[in-house]
Amino acid sequence: MSTPTRVYIARLAGVAVFDPNGDQVGRVRDAVARLRPTKRPPEVVGLVAEMPMRRRIFLSINRITSIDADAVVLGTGTLNLRRFEKRPNELLVLQELLDRRVQIDPGGQAGTVVDVAMESTRDEWSLARVAVREQTGRLSRRGYLHQVEWDRVRGLSGIADARGTANLLAVLEDMRPADLANALQDLPDTRRNEVAAALDDARLADVLSELPEHDQVEILAALDRERAADVLEQMDPDDAADLLGELPPPEQDVLLDLMEPDEADPVRQLLKYTPGTAGSVMTSEPVILPPDATVAEALARVREPQLSPAVAAQVFVTRAPMTTPTGRYLGMVHFQRLLREPPADMLGGVVVNDIDPLRPTTPLPEITRRMATYDLVAMPVIDRNNRLVGAVTVDDVLDHLLPSDWRERDAASGPAVADEGLDGADG
Asked: Which residues are the signal sequence here (predicted)?
């Protein structure tokens, strides 16, 4: 291997993986080590890489020709795309060791694992050294960082006691919410709940929206109710309504009462709609402006970073008030039209109203047909008084058209591709 003889694994998290042609095939998420019956350090048998569409696969260490903190390069051969599954005698280094509370011999100094180094000899890689941050008992001072041999650290094997999350969060912090949600699904339930609870409210809200419903419910249930209500306030109203819809009505009422009234009211309204209708899948917070707003003002609104691409794709024009349910609905303007119009022009002069809006009771198949017919990424939803009550976006439709378990990490989600040159474990 054209590679350093010692590599700290936490520094590999997120590093790009390239095939022999220089094309990126994924990113490193962890390292796999095989436990040994003797006191020898575990042997590193490969890396776990995340591929497109959230698939995690095993990369045998024998297939890697170069490995460092900038890139991992594979040798020749065909990738085995079978989803990675850990074997009973294997260890996921970052998932299972980071933040573990241990003791350093001699003396039994207590500390926390912040990284683990793998070192290469002529014929193998092994977990040879551990970086341990000494516990000082003082919040004002960070403990001394020890880098010690594997066999000098007690507490690396077996079930970990309750532990912190700072170092694992540091590894995960740059992930997109969907990727972080995917990583949480790989953690044991207790560890997953610890990490989720350590995220700030906005970050946790984004991650919850990307998780399967049962994981959302379990994480929310592990929080105290005040914190759970704070997180729900950070979610889009339609996502919060979907999550609360999985809870018993008494628990829904408790959490809604703990939320700020202006955050809870749109969620309560969404919960009233029949499942499978426009009312049940719409967002109640699309971009809404009056007809005397200018094109420049509209472009400024759709550039707001917190808006999703589907919500920011168009502006809905209504009479006051500008929050749902609004005054009379007048029409909508797609952002591409805004880009072609003079900035000082008013929205009332460029509004489009030749497509019939949806009603809250419009069923999902009809919504899908109409959005496909007109090539729309969003459609307005109006009530019987012609007031805008929300908008259905294409991502809302996809979430409800895909199988209910589409977010699940299961082994049956794709075909395996044989790898005749794969040596060692295949995970």
From this structure: none
Q: What is the pLDDT of residues 237-250, one digit of tens each?
A: 989 998 999 999 99
- Domain boundary assignment for the chain: 6-92, 95-154, 175-272, 288-401
What pLDDT, on the 0 to 100 scale, is given for residue 408?
A: 60
Burial tier of 318 (Cβ tally within 10 Å: 0-12, 13-18, 19+): buried
Which CATH code for domain 175-272?
1.25.60.10
User: What is the mean pLDDT of the segment spanning 99-116?
Assistant: 88
Span 329-377, pLDDT tens digits:
999 999 999 999 999 999 999 999 999 999 999 999 999 999 999 999 9
If you classify domain 6-92 with CATH, what class do you get? mainly beta
Q: Left if phi > 0, otherwise alpha if psi is -120 to 50, otherwise beta: which for 207?
A: alpha
What are the angstrom distances between the C-alpha of 421 and each of 60, 86, 327?
Answer: 10, 21, 66
d(CA 222, CA 191): 11
Q: Is the pTM of this model over 0.70?
A: no
Answer whether 175-272 and 288-401 agree in fold.
no
Euclidean distance between CA atoms 17 and 162, whole angstroms: 33
* Of the candidates 111, 210, 192, the residue with the CA atom closest to the CA atom of residue 156: 111
Domain 288-401, classified CATH 2.60.40.10, yes or no: no
